[in-house]
Amino acid sequence: MHRPLAHVNRTTNVPDRSLIMLSSLAMVMIIVFYIFNADLQTALLIQSGAAIIVYIIGSSASIRLFETKGWRRALP
């Protein structure tokens, strides 16, 4: 996580800047969907596709990590 976003509030122990950024991006996407008059099915397909892409990227990164470090280090 980037340093500016990693700021943790002392009273609540919550990464407040990260939550502000996440909420802002969600609001931007809602506005974009409203401007382009996207229906619910299209909006859900876009979000599902983004989640699948994140899953594929994470899986490929873990495969590369296990190939370089070995499976014996990953498992107890």
Helical stretch count?
A: 3
Outline, from the CA principal axes? flat
Main beta-sheet annotation = none
Count of all domains: 2
Distance between the termini: 27 Å
Range of strand content? under 5%
Q: Based on helices, strands and strand pairing, what is the structural class? A: mainly alpha
Question: How many DSSP E strands?
Answer: 0
Query: How many whole angstroms does the radius of gyration measure?
Result: 18 Å
Rounded average pLDDT: 84
Query: How much helix is in the residues?
Result: over 70%
Oligomer: single chain
Low-confidence stretches: none
Helix-strand topology string: HHH
Characterize the structure shown.
This protein has 76 residues and is mainly α. The protein folds into two domains: 1-37; 38-76. The protein is built from three helices and no strands. The protein has helices at 16-35, 40-69, 71-74. It starts with 15 loop residues before the first helix and ends with a helix.
